[in-house]
Amino acid sequence: MALDELKAALPDYAKDLKLNLSAVIGNSELPAQQLWGTVLACAMATRSAAVLRELEPEAKANLTPEAYTAAKGAASIMGMNNVYYRTLHLLSNNEYSTMRAGLRMNIIGTPGVEKADFELWCFAVSAINGCGQCLDSHEQVLRKAGVDAATVQASMKIAAVVQAVAATLDSEAVLAAL
User: Fold this and answer.
1) Spatial distance between the Cα atoms of 85 and 143, rounded to a whole number of angstroms
2) What is the pTM of this model?
């Protein structure tokens, strides 16, 4: 199982991450599509080969082809949007916020899966990429769609743990190569 492989690869000092992987993915109460779409989108957002190698096959096995593609699409579009909107937020010159973005984002309107699931995946990727404007926007859409706070929080936890696992494994690989 992918989680067991990831946990085994983590060093002893990251015991909390091992436990958290089991809690947020292995014992998640999210429906399979929400869970594995979030996991896949987050794994892609980390850019970690080690994490993707372990989590992608299980995500693919637990998602419909449409959901698999949509989760990858969420990671892709938010990779662009998070940079753009985070930059707007950080700039003190508000003139840029009045300008039309002119960036294509069609997948957000027609993701090929339930809108709430796609929004949840976009929210989780935005947590990894640190875009407050996108987090607020996607959280508001989720809540208006009737998604409860516990589900939103579950996606935050998945994002946090997957990102921490990726950073730890990638750092250990660099240290081992020194």
Assistant:
1) 21
2) 0.95
